[in-house]
Design goal:
Elements: E1 4-8, H1 11-18, E2 25-29, E3 35-36, E4 44-45, E5 51-52, E6 55-56, H2 61-73, E7 76-79, H3 85-97, E8 105-107, H4 115-123, H5 130-157, H6 166-183, E9 189-198, E10 204-208, H7 216-228, E11 231-243, H8 251-262, H9 266-278, H10 294-308, H11 346-361, E12 367-378, E13 381-394, H12 398-401, H13 407-410, E14 421-433, H14 442-451, H15 460-469, E15 473-478, E16 483-491, E17 494-502, E18 507-513, H16 515-527, H17 534-548, H18 554-571, H19 577-580, E19 584-588, E20 595-601, E21 604-609, E22 619-622, H20 634-640, E23 645-649, E24 655-661, E25 664-669, E26 672-675, H21 686-703, E27 704-708, E28 713-718, E29 721-725, E30 730-732, H22 744-753
Parallel strand pairs: 1-2, 1-7, 7-8
Antiparallel strand pairs: 3-6, 4-5, 9-10, 9-14, 11-12, 11-14, 12-13, 14-16, 15-18, 16-17, 19-20, 20-21, 21-22, 23-24, 24-25, 25-26, 27-28, 28-29, 29-30
Helix pairs in contact: 3-5, 5-17, 5-18, 6-15, 6-16, 8-9, 8-14, 9-11
């Protein structure tokens, strides 16, 4: 057994570190956290000063036993988990669970997995920083208290199986508020004027009038002045310009740029960055620091001068503006600047190259530009046209980082002289619409959370995944509504009017709140304002920073939060369910006189005739997509109660009816339910329904190899081939048995020996 035992979080990290340490060191992995709060129950002793009750998870007991045995025989145990709060927490839990003595335990940290960094860390070990551990405990306990006290309130008042989280609820609020801004947005309509002029040598010059005209009449009047006008170059302005490189990546800027340039989600970016870090290719990827070490700056300077020349190098240092940023960390950079490409697969290579380019570019010269503005005068109007262009004189950092815009290539202007006459070829006045605020993408939400001081680098990706997993937000393509556009075109001294319909480009991969997300956000904003208050959430992060620096005691901080919060939980018992789910009275049913209301139900938005206190049970109908609880009218609601709609009978006299259910429109024939997705249940006719039923039965028959109807056992063709089912349990068919040869007894035998695995559903994320 080695004299030294080094424990890290992941096998990949262990493998890389083992290469740099000698034979006296054995490197083992804890495979992440070994202890945590149990999944079930609060597991926080609130009465006993918020004491957390930790346990070794069942899947880690073997790992703990192996590490404990290895630690007993080692002279020194080195805890080498990551350098952030979570890494410090892992080290502390290892110390506690393995019963390590302080005398033989050393804590080491490094921000890159390279031989010099690890050797330096071994030479300067420290003890576990209990302040960092307490900050992580405070976050974990606070989030557990919020989740376990607030979620049952949502179960009672909104619907079962909902959950609330401190940072997640604020993220959902941002998305809900942005969606409502868009819904309430009224576009401002103006007319934009563009023109194309011909120079004496036949070259065309495109220009735009900086004035926007409010009405069609104003735009037409200006076009009419152009018919009588002459045109000339009034002014030529050339000015030097520069473009500076961005700072090297932090966690959030890496997530944003990887989304913009590579199309990676924050979660995907962090998984790939983790692999690059563990393999020693980049520095630690969870950081909010812009700092670069003097060694890294020197290495980049040498590389840039040798590769591109001295004129391309410019020494820069960056200051981190984020409150609580850890300046001891570095920004994300390659560990070896001479490697411009690295990674185990194509995705890792793309991300590595992005990190490499950004870091190298941060130490390069500005790009030098020449900006040109040509002003064109019209003889019959004070209005002007402008043509703008930009030429790159010296690439500087753009030689490495490039640009995502092609504007620099497209905006090269022709040579002209002041006073030169121009001939108008065409002019176009086009109706334009101001744009609503943009929906969040995963990347822009990360930027917003960071700017508001909500969450920290390690929380962004899991937060965004969690709100989608919980069904509060979905990533979707949102289609724009069709609208009419007017264009006035002037050509050959004639103005032609064209009116067409256009559909704005859809919003791709945007975060859109679900009905559940809206209801939960409104409920929390009204009754638990602190939980979704932006400033409060920011202040909590500041409290965690104070705890990590030893300025605040973590249990005292929790006590200050818990008293007022718990009172609000108790007070929420008085809130009626109707108020919580935003029941909206629409009027009275003309047939029965009973009230008609719209609200959010267990399976989504719905309308209701009557109340629970009536002698007769209330009637319910789902609100279809395209209509909302907030805007549906009484007439629209009453139309929904025309379902189920009787269509007639089949040849055996069994009734056929159309309806809408939880999973969309369907027709029912006896006990059969057949989806009619894409068909309108309010207008579908009997012949069409019969065709869909026949088609459904053909598909069903094709999937049935054998049926033992009396026993309820079937041999079916599934997605992964033939299998046996009794409706509750499935069984695989051995390769040496032909499905058609199966007997009832053999099917029963295979079902009996099959493991009853739970059905897969939505992934549940720990609170």
């Amino acid at each position: 057994m080695s004299k030294n035992l080094v424990i890290v979080e992941s096998p990949a990290k262990a493998k890389t570190i083992a290469k740099y340490l000698g034979k006296d060191f054995e490197v083992k992995s804890s495979f992440g956290h070994i202890r945590d709060l149990p999944k079930k129950g609060m597991s926080v002793d609130i009465a006993n000063n918020f004491t957390p009750i930790y346990e070794v998870s069942s899947d880690k007991k073997k790992v703990v036993a192996e590490l404990r045995q290895a630690a007993k025989t080692a002279e020194t145990v080195w805890l080498a988990s990551d350098s952030d709060r979570e890494g410090e927490s892992i080290a502390w839990h290892l110390s506690e669970a393995l019963h390590l003595s302080p005398q033989k335990t050393k804590r080491i940290v490094f921000h890159e997995i390279t031989k010099p960094a690890i050797e330096a860390a071994v030479k300067s070990p420290r003890t576990i920083d209990i302040d960092l551990v307490d900050a992580q405990q405070a976050r974990r306990v606070l989030d557990r208290i919020v989740g376990y006290e607030l979620s049952p309130v949502l179960w009672k008042k909104v619907r079962p199986k909902l959950s609330a989280g401190r940072v997640q609820s604020v993220a959902v609020r941002l998305i809900v508020e942005r969606e409502r801004e868009i819904e309430n947005f009224a576009a401002v309509v103006t007319f934009k004027l563009t023109a194309e002029f011909k120079l004496a040598d036949g070259t065309l010059l495109k220009a735009e009038c900086p004035t926007k005209f409010k009405t069609e009449d104003q735009a037409r009047a200006f076009l009419e002045t152009l018919i009588k006008s002459t045109f000339s170059i009034k002014d030529i302005q050339k000015s030097p310009g520069v473009r500076s490189p961005s700072a090297p990546f932090t966690t959030s800027t890496l997530q944003q740029e990887a989304s913009r340039r590579l199309g990676y989600s924050p979660k995907q970016t962090m998984m790939l960055a983790q692999r690059l870090y563990e393999n020693g290719l980049i520095t630690y990827m969870r950081t909010d620091s812009l700092n670069l070490s003097s060694i890294a700056i020197g290495a980049m300077a040498n590389f840039i001068k040798q590769e591109y020349g001295p004129s391309y190098h410019h020494l820069r240092t960056y200051t981190t503006k984020t409150a609580g940023a850890q300046e001891a960390h570095e920004a994300i950079r390659p560990t070896d600047v001479t490697k411009s490409s690295a990674g185990a697969d194509a995705q890792q290579k793309k991300l590595y190259e992005l990190i490499w380019r950004r870091a190298v570019a941060s130490q390069m010269s500005q790009a030098k530009l020449e900006k040109t503005t040509i002003t064109i005068a019209t003889s019959e109007s004070p209005e002007i046209f402008e043509a703008k262009g930009e030429i790159i004189i010296f690439q500087g950092f753009l030689k490495v980082y490039g640009t995502s815009s092609k504007a620099g290539d497209e905006a090269i202007l022709p040579e002209v002289t002041q006073g030169e006459a121009l001939h108008l070829q065409t002019a176009l006045a086009e109706q334009t619409f101001s744009r609503a605020p943009a929906r969040y993408t995963e990347a822009t939400l990360v930027r917003q959370l960071e700017e508001m001081g909500i969450g920290r680098p390690s929380t962004y990706a899991p937060t965004i995944s969690t709100v989608q997993d919980r069904g509060y937000v979905e990533k979707a393509d949102v289609e724009g509504g069709e609208r009419e556009v007017v264009r006035l075109k002037l050509a050959k001294k004639q103005i032609q009017r064209e009116q067409t319909k256009e559909t704005p480009a859809p919003d791709r991969n945007k975060l859109v709140p679900t009905d559940t997300g809206k209801v939960v956000t409104d409920f929390l904003a009204k009754h638990f304002a602190d939980i979704v208050d932006y400033d409060f959430t920011k202040e909590v992060e500041a409290d965690f920073d104070d705890i990590s620096s030893g300025k605040k005691q973590w249990q005292k901080m929790l006590g200050e939060f818990y008293g007022p919060f718990h009172k609000k939980v108790l007070a929420s018992e008085e809130v009626s369910r109707a108020e919580a789910v935003q029941a909206r009275e629409l009027g009275a049913d003309p047939k029965t006189g009973k009230p008609v209301s719209a609200r959010y139900g267990r399976f989504g938005p719905m309308v209701q005739i009557g109340v629970a206190e009536d002698d007769e049970k209330p009637r319910f109908a789902s609100i279809p997509q395209g209509k909302k609880v907030e805007t549906i009218t009484l007439d629209e609601a009453l139309t929904l109660f025309k379902l189920p709609r009787s269509l007639g009978q089949d040849e055996q006299g069994i009734a056929i009816e159309a309806n809408i259910g939880r999973f969309g429109p369907y027709v029912k024939l006896g006990s059969e339910y057949i989806s009619i997705k894409g068909h309108d249940p309010y207008t579908i006719k009997l012949p069409e329904a019969k065709e869909l039923i026949t088609e459904h039965r053909k598909k069903k028959a094709a999937s049935e190899i054998k049926v033992f109807e009396k026993e309820g056992i079937k041999v079916l063709v599934g997605r992964f081939g033939p299998y046996i089912t009794d409706g509750k349990k499935n069984a695989k068919i051995p390769k040496d048995i032909k499905p058609l040869d199966l007997t009832l007894a053999k099917c029963q035998e295979l079902l009996a020996s099959s493991i009853n695995r739970p059905r897969r559903g939505r992934r549940i994320v720990k609170r």
